[in-house]
Amino acid sequence: MGLARRLYRGEIDVDFVGKWRLWYSLSGFLLAISLAGLLFNGLNLGVEFTGGSVFTFKAPSATIEQVRETFSEEGVHQPIVQAMGTSGDGWRVTTETLSESAMNNVQSAVSKDFNVPISEVSIQSIGASWGGEVSQKAWIGLGVFMLAIILYLSMAFEPKMALAAIVALVHDLVITAGIYAWSGFEVTPATLLGFLTILGYSLYDAVVVFDMIKEVTAKLGHTSKQTYSMAANNALNHTLIRSLNTSLVAILPVAAILFIGTTLLGAGTLKDLSLALFVGMIVGTYSSLCVATPLLVTLKEREPKYQAIAKRLASTSGGKGAKGSKSAAVAKG
């Protein structure tokens, strides 16, 4: 509790920039795990993308095994059975694309086995071409979004900040997609909406941090007593509690939807969206603090102006180098 209180009051300075090797290693590990999941497991694409047939009906006394058995006996390969409704008495079964006669046979079998009026066994047939169209529009939307980010950040800040923000966004997307691959959650159009939403959230967090960094580093000159990395780290600490508070307030309702709504209330249609938001918000907060800012500092410290400041401070710190000055500044904070 003491640490949390000091953090809230701004009495603690965390050396985010100085620990860039730790953050890069952690991100590299997460990216490797995520890419492995995408490569070996792949994404569990919903019927909206692959095409198929969807049967929905109510059978309060049925079990997953019984529903799956009924469909398998009618020649359906690997039916995906999902419980629906607050009491779990509704069923949604996704199958491969079936012919009209096969769908009628399955409909009759469900009606007979579970004593359901045949008119209450609804069938929806989805073509794969529709899913391809959705995927194409999603990629176009993602490309337009990325281009808009680059143009906005380049005009409002500078190209190097735009590059750092884009790297952080790609980092967030890959890790979120990797968690989907390992968890086996179905990817639906709602998932794509969640992905686009976390892009906006991650960008918001990065812009807040970069705006403070721009304000603080604008004062750096030849007589400055701070390097760019020291100034950026101080700016990051000034926005730390704001970022954490914003993230916590945003994550709590999403967590309620994911863990309470989908388990206790049976809101299964929301889990695809809520998982993307939940993971994306956590990873987005991490990337804005530990990926985007250290990467920006790495790029900026290569500029002659800031190299000169670092060399001057290193020469006046008794040969301890800029790192010593930086550590001293952090400890003093």
- Biggest sheet: strands side by side, in what order? 3-4-2-5
The SSE string, one letter per element, is: HHEHEHEEHEHHEHHHHH
CATH C-level class of the largest domain: Mainly Alpha
CATH architecture of the largest domain: Up-down Bundle
| Proportion of residues in extended strands | 5-15%
Using the coordinates shown, work out and report the CATH topology of the largest domain. Answer: Multidrug efflux transporter AcrB transmembrane fold
Mean pLDDT: 80
Overall spatial form: elongated
Strand segment count = 6
Structure at a glance:
With 333 residues, this protein is of the alpha+beta class.
How would you portray this structure in words?
This protein has 333 residues and is α+β, with helices and mostly antiparallel strands. The protein folds into two domains: 2-45 and 130-332, Up-down Bundle (Multidrug efflux transporter AcrB transmembrane fold), CATH 1.20.1640; 52-126, Alpha-Beta Plaits, CATH 3.30.70.3400. The chain is 68% helix and 8% strand. The chain contains twelve helices and six strands. The chain has a four-stranded antiparallel beta sheet with strand order 3-4-2-5. Strands 1-6 form a two-stranded parallel sheet. Helix 8 (189-217) packs parallel to helix 10 (271-300). The longest helix has 34 residues, at 228-261. The chain is elongated, with a radius of gyration of 26 Å. The protein starts with a helix and ends with a helix. The model is unreliable at 319-333 (pLDDT under 50).
